[in-house]
User: What shape does this take?
Amino acid sequence: MPIGAHMSVAGGLHTAFERGQQAGCDTMQIFSKNASRWVAKPLEEEEVATFRRARAASPLAPLLIHDSYLINMGTAAEEMWQKSINAFLEELERADALGVDYLVTHSGAHVGAGAAVGHQRLAAALNQITSQRNPLRPDGTPATMILLETNAGQGSCLCRSFAEMAEVFGRLSEPEQVAICFDTCHVFASGYDMRTPAGYTATMAEFDRLIGLDKLRAFHVNDSLKGVGSLVDRHAHIGQGELGLSFFHALVNDPRFKQVPMILETEKDETMSEDVANLAVLRALVGCEANELAAVQALAMQTGVAESQKRAAAKAKKARGGKAVTDEAEQEVL
Assistant: This one.
């Protein structure tokens, strides 16, 4: 199955392919612009051509883009709502120009207006967006598909449950243009206990009943620093959080998801050694027997020790006036 990670685009969008292959990815996710800003310079023809050449030469597939963190299509505030729609349309144009398969977006927040209003606003925004799109690109290939990401449930965030996500889908005029990105940390934090085989089976059965597994097109594979139902979005390395290896063992060995991309969004530095280690843990789980999980857990904890040492060194460097590198720093590259 395609397993990968979110990759930096420092030095140009096309550079992500080399990083992804160096880390051992089969698939990857990127930002096509600074995720903390509304505005980005338009993509130039040569930039698009260079990206497409790099993709043609790379085995990485499918490709995902995550949109700006500022976009909120669930708000009742008209100015912010329309600004978010326009920004998301721009993200879609960029994704289509680059030939990317999926564009992931957060479901948004109602910001005090109430979940019912927020879900209606989110669906209305998506309907406005899909009505303005051609489902095919000029070359005849399918346009980039929109993926709504599951939420951890913090604050006034929408789609806290599969039932709420299903409510939004029930309002869509062109549901074939929209699917789901299942963030494992978020689903766990929102209250779905997937730590046991029975819990995993029940969670996926509920998703299938309410939404349909055919709508599940990507996973964000993150362990959770906080417990089930915490409503706190804090990612942890695989096997080092509250979700644990039993869940990931069930996931990577589920034949229904053999072709579904699984993207790491865990903390890392510029060496990408954390990605390499997390990918190794996930792959060690493929075909692993339940009685072999202890050995894989030991591998995961070795990663944790190395990670702790590196973070301590980074903090010490920062204290001396240096700059610690985080996975957020790469947002400033475009």
Q: What stands out?
A: The longest strand covers residues 178-183.
